[in-house]
Amino acid sequence: xxxxxxxxxxxxxxxxxxYATRKYxxxxxxxxxxxxxxxxxxxxxxxxSELSPTRVAKHLILTDRFEAPQIEALRAELLDAKRSGRAMxxxxxxxxMGGQSMAVSGTTITMNDEWLELDKTALTYRCGAGTRWxxxxxxxxxxxxxxxxxxxxxxxxxxxxxxxxxxxxxxxFSGMGSTVVSLRMxxxxxxxxxxxxxxxxxxxxxxxxxxxxxxVITDMTVRMVANTxxxxxxxxxxxxxxxxxxxxxxxxxxxxxxxYGRLDVSKDRFFEQAMMVTYRPSQDQSDLPPxxxxxxxxxASRSIFRAQLGSDSAxxxxxxxxxxxxxxxxxxxxxxxxxxxxxxxxxxxxxxxxTDILHxxxxxxxxxxxxxxxCREVIPSSYQELLNITLRYVARDSESWLSYAPxxxxxxxxxxxxxxxxxxxxxxxxxTQELIDRTLDLGGSYYLPYRLHARQDQMVKAYxxxxxxxxxxRAMDPTNLFRHAMWDTYMARG
Length: 494
Ligand SMILES: Cc1cc2nc3c(=O)[nH]c(=O)nc-3n(C[C@H](O)[C@H](O)[C@H](O)COP(=O)(O)OP(=O)(O)OC[C@H]3O[C@@H](n4cnc5c(N)ncnc54)[C@H](O)[C@@H]3O)c2cc1C
Prior knowledge:
Blueprint: H1 3-8, E1 24-28, E2 34-38, E3 44-45, E4 54-55, E5 58-62, H2 68-83, E6 88-91, E7 107-111, E8 116-119, E9 124-128, H3 133-142, E10 145-147, H4 158-164, E11 180-186, E12 192-196, H5 201-207, E13 216-226, E14 229-238, H6 242-250, E15 258-263, E16 273-281, H7 296-306, H8 312-329, E17 334-335, H9 336-340, E18 354-363, H10 368-378, E19 385-394, E20 409-419, H11 422-441, E21 445-446, H12 456-462, H13 466-476, H14 485-491
Helix pairs in contact: 7-8, 10-11
């Protein structure tokens, strides 16, 4: 092995991904159950759904910063995959849920190249593509800065976040892609190029929310903002009022920096009440405390959250906790970084017979009441257990080709606890398609990193940029080197 290749850290053996501790090989059986047998095969990877076991030919974990030797080694791997007709795809934490982060029988790369450099004058940081938000927050926090936009948890990779164009509680931003200044990416022809709004802009906008299908991002430069001490405000209201009230609370000179909403998910009061939480800077901005990994309230919330499974009285208790005790206990100051620095594991279900499945729908604020009615008709009569819905604000995204927010939207993130059975899976698929239909009827769209349950016509309707995106991908990658289950399901025949 050459030094170049050694520096790259590759192989197929002792490779450990974020989900290595929870590996399941899911096989159907005639009784209609889904069997989950732990597997020690390092070439069977899975994602956060625990329902996407995928055999790959090669799993590379990249830990080194991309300098000339690593770039050369990546190019060699890419050419090797291409020559053998294998697919290739980059990934980070594999928290997507429909196989978007794995190359079937191909080369899957886990990016763990964690490094970060601040530019305090430009208010940006440069970092490795696989740098996790937990690392970014720790480094920025120590210097008084904070990520501009990221998800509500800190486990994800920064380039992966751009590749799904994720969003979170920070307002009044659009997706995280809107805060990326530039990036470097290796294309299917082996060239390593810089993309930004000024340079290769078409590739920059197609790759933003492009699910890794145009190349492997190696590093990026991203905007940061000041870390701030924040004071929360809680407001309970009828759910129907939430859309316009949320926009009113956030848009304009309201000073709100972070915001989210929740709805009561108990079956007998389904989506009747909403809670809005907004955070404004406190008067005292001196001596900000460091951002801990996970707060007491979050940890205490886990048992209350999980007790909701199959119990309406536990759902009532949780709503009381959220709207009564929560505001009382959690009304003190916090910091922006503290709110962002939450690992996914805090709410983990610790149950091998079930799995958490996320859905997300984007709806115009003025259509929110109609969307609530649609959900009331679809969700409680299904077989699924809705444990949580969080509402966020996403500003218009006119940049990314696969934009899910062509105008300002309320993002409705739902967490279902699903039985790992064929019955659970079929019911989830049926319910998802119904929810997507109802959302599309209201002019909304749905989010792509989750299960691939949407029908083809739903994907086409929700994403008008799909055809140009596929054409661009085919032009840049004629042999379809970069592909995964989402490409195969919705794009390969487009
Ligand atoms: C518990 C949980 C909470 C979540 N919360 C939010 C939220 O608040 N807001 C939100 O918007 N989303 C949220 N999501 C969705 C999440 O943002 C996506 O699933 C995201 O992809 C996760 O990042 P990851 O590192 O796991 O990416 P992966 O799943 O590993 O990859 C995602 C995509 O990015 C591509 N990719 C990754 N790295 C590279 C690279 N270096 N070059 C090219 N392509 C690459 C992959 O090919 C894949 O298509 C949540 C998901 C979970 C499970």
